[in-house]
Design goal:
By secondary structure, this protein is mainly β. It has a single domain, classed as Beta Barrel (AttH-like fold), CATH 2.40.370. It contains no helices and 26 strands.
Length: about 350
């Protein structure tokens, strides 16, 4: 399963025309205005207690004040989001962190082989195998994971440079409520960077099926023709899906008590080329990232499950769903193009 795309050096030209140079392009691109690294996943303890997690690092270019010079010059803003879904306990917790780079407070660079914001970080243990270490410490819990790709990196067919590790074997521990809980499961990592944000909201699905296949689907509501997807087969080969080759139909609505936004938390997904029909259900309805008086946009992102049929056989899996643009939100920072 180890492809050359995980090796120490590789050049790839993406659909956007951007020429990737790995492993350098796993890290920061200061010439682009906006960049993010998303980690999400579904984990279990040995007694099958289920958790979902999200750790996201954002980098946003900014115009510093003329009076700002030296180490504290704020020409790059770093925002990070951390969320934990206690699926079987029925609780959702999230927090955020905003920093400038300063004297190493936040960053994402090739020299450090890491992305970090305070004591939240992902460090690459090996550039050759893309094994990574994730750690996030907050007042409610500490999450530590080792992440090992089971498939090659995916370069998506999209207007902006966009890559994913669609199947990361995750193992580690959660320090939670006075306990240290061993965890195992599967994670997904996205990395995207661009200059020109697009308006409107989007719906994004990561699907990790039990048959060792994965799917990314992205629905751009303002311009449906720009929607797209990627199917990754069991061998790791990626296959582009344009907007005419799949459908995602919203179902059950949930109204947020925090923002008053209504989100379609259940969906029907069909991909005729794969003879695939899935029903998505949220692990919890309330997985909205809403923080009063925050600079962050309001959005829903959480652990979900999938059930249905594929090629005439039962199909099931887990993943994450992200929905943006449903809340009335005038906060400008990181209001960016979809992943």
């Amino acid at each position: 399963m180890r492809s050359s795309i995980l090796a120490a050096a590789l050049a790839v030209i993406g659909a956007s025309g951007y020429r990737y140079d790995f492993p350098r392009d796993h890290f920061n691109h200061p010439d682009f205005q906006t960049e993010w690294w998303y980690y999400t996943g579904n984990l279990q303890t040995p007694d099958h207690h289920r958790f979902g997690f999200e750790l996201t690092f954002f980098r946003q270019a900014a115009q510093p004040l003329a009076s700002e010079t030296g180490t504290w010059r704020a020409d790059q803003i770093y925002l990070a989001h951390l969320a934990l879904t206690d699926i079987d306990g029925g609780h959702f917790y999230h927090t955020e962190r905003l920093n400038r780079a300063g004297p190493g407070l936040a960053g994402a660079d090739f020299a450090s082989r890491a992305y970090w914001n305070g004591n939240w970080h992902v460090r690459w243990k090996s550039l050759a195998t893309a094994e990574q270490e994730l750690q996030a410490v907050c007042d409610r819990f500490t999450l530590t994971l080792n992440l090992r790709p089971e498939k090659p990196l995916v370069v998506h067919h999209k207007a902006s440079p966009y890559t994913s590790f669609s199947r990361l074997a995750a193992s580690g521990e959660l320090q939670w409520n006075g306990q240290t809980l061993p965890l195992r499961g599967m994670a997904w990592m996205d990395h995207e960077f661009f200059n020109s944000p697009a308006g409107g909201g989007w719906d994004w699905f990561s699907i990790q099926l039990d048959n060792h296949e994965e799917i990314m689907l992205y629905r751009f509501r303002a311009k449906p023709a720009l929607s797209s997807g990627t199917y990754i087969d069991a061998s790791g080969a990626a296959h582009f899906l344009d907007s005419t080759e799949f459908s995602v139909s919203p179902g059950q609505l949930w109204k947020s008590p925090h923002s008053q936004a209504e989100y379609p938390v259940a969906w029907e997904i069909a991909i005729p080329l794969l003879d695939l029909h899935l029903t998505e259900q949220p692990a919890l309805e309330d997985q909205e990232l809403f923080t009063p008086n925050s600079v962050s946009p309001i959005y829903w992102e959480g652990a979900v499950t999938y059930r249905g049929r594929m090629r005439g056989r039962p199909a099931q899996g887990a993943g994450y769903l992200e929905m943006t643009g449903y809340a009335r939100d005038a906060r400008p920072i990181l209001r960016a193009a979809p992943r």
